[in-house]
Design goal:
80 residues, mainly alpha, two-stranded antiparallel ribbon, 5 helices, 2 strands, 59% helix, globular
Length: 80
């Protein structure tokens, strides 16, 4: 499997979400993901988030877990 053209997109999403805030809601993530016009695979990762409030670390853990579960970590990149 090779890296996608979308490699790093979720990292840019995380960076944008936490540019000015330390905690964000699932709704914040969904709205920002819509603005980023994510491809279906990446929007699927975002949609797997359970409701709640997220710190950067918690959101990254959730995304990385979902990416790993789908086997997409190399294809789309992990987040930190």
């Amino acid at each position: 499997m090779q890296q996608s053209e979308e490699f790093g997109t979720l990292q840019r999403l995380v960076d944008a979400l936490f540019r000015e805030k330390k905690r964000i809601s699932r709704l914040d993530v969904l709205l920002t993901a819509e603005a980023f016009d994510l491809i279906d695979d990446l929007f699927e990762i975002v949609n797997l988030l359970p409701p709640g409030i997220y710190t950067r670390q918690r959101l990254c853990d959730q995304f990385n877990s979902a990416l790993s579960g789908h086997g997409w970590g190399f294809k789309y990149g992990t987040v930190e």
